[in-house]
Amino acid sequence: KWIPSISGKKRTSRKWRKEASILQKKSAQLDQFRKRLEQAWDSNEMGPIPSTPEGIATAAAECARKAFADDLFPPFVVNVKVPEYDSKRKDGLYDLVATTEFAVHLAEELGGKTVIFFKDLETCEKVSNVFDARARVQAEQEEIRKKALESPLEKSKDESDTEELEDPFDPSKLAKAASKISVGEEKPDPDAFRQSLIMQNTDIISGEDSESASKKRKLVTSAGEKNWKLAHVFGNETISKGTDMRGDVEEAMNKHVKIEDDVERIIVLSPTTLPELLSSRRLCRDHMFDKQVFFFNAQWEISPAEFAKATVIYSFLPLLVKIEREDEDPYEMDTTRDERLAQEQQRNARVALLRRYPGPYDLYMDVHGMGYERVDSFRASRYDKKGPTPGWINQRIKAKLEAEGLM
């Protein structure tokens, strides 16, 4: 047996199940990370919680408005070093749709027409298909709700006179109606039965957990009026790796990059390769003075000249430091799962490096599970896009743990 993958290669069912199991475990780890981040975050001091694309976009939009008020020229850089937004990761945690949702929410927060650029046509079509599928599901759900309200199951007049109005989609009533089919009585409307099942499983259809209904992520779809458009830089063109690379990039951009005059903003998502660096340089040269150019998680080994005066308006780097405590008993097994998770949480110190323009890079730590507190600050330089060095971060973390008597 084999299961076709997205890449077109054959995968055995056993290998597919193993990959799915690994991804499921890592997804659970991401959910746990978001939960702990929300518990420790101080919104009054640190701004919106960057646990969802919408939260990151809201925080970045606040910083962008301050940069606009100071008359800063683009490009503007947003760096979020969370696994699901890191396109260089090879463990399958990178989420292209979530990355695009950030750009969409940023466009909606700032207003005005926005073009969101991907590397190629294939990537652009993947995201477009997801948004289109979401729009179809929402339209079907809305139609089902309307039908359910317009044509409820009718009861007899005698029952309606003596009893209160019952829910037509009560599972017990539907099961009773279905059981009447075998004894020759009138069959219930199959559409109504199907509608009731779908209405009861709305969370399953939308892909959301019913327990997190109060904190649902705002899903982006292709339906309705929108001020953003998905586009691509290279299309399906082949970009050579040799001396012809620059010419291939220019030719592909001349063919596929069409930016209208009324567009106010350009957002480039996760550029990492050398051809993307060349295309980003051209976008900056052509539109630096007439449009707002944003780069999200640009990861190049060398920084282009056009980035010399770029401004990092928002940056977030979460870290985890394992603490070896003296009272820890690694052989203690007489505990519940929740108790073990709580102990694991206490053994880890959470660290967050956060930059919100025009402020510095602030280092926060949560050592005892009581929430983040500021440890130190690093003055942001316009000519240093990477922020504080790992050595600076490690030195401050070590000093904090020593002050708490944990080292």
What do these coordinates show?
The protein has 407 residues and is α/β, with parallel strands linked by helices. The chain is built from 13 helices and 11 strands. The strands form 2 sheets. The protein has a 9-stranded mixed beta sheet with strand order 5-4-6-7-3-8-9-10-11, with helices on both faces. Strands 1-2 form a two-stranded antiparallel ribbon. Helix 3 (53-69) crosses helix 4 (96-110). The longest helix has 30 residues, at 121-150. Mean pLDDT is 80; it is low at 1-8 and 178-214.
Features:
two-stranded antiparallel sheet; globular; single chain; disordered N terminus; 407 residues; 13 helices; alpha/beta; nine-stranded mixed beta sheet
Q: List how many beta strands DSSP finds.
A: 11
**Radius of gyration from the CA trace?**
26 Å
Going across the major beta sheet, what is the strand order?
A: 5-4-6-7-3-8-9-10-11
Kindly, what is the distance between the CA atoms of the first and last residues, rounded to a whole number of angstroms? 54 Å
Average pLDDT confidence is 80
Q: Assign an overall shape.
A: globular
Number of helices: 13
Strand content bin: 15-25%
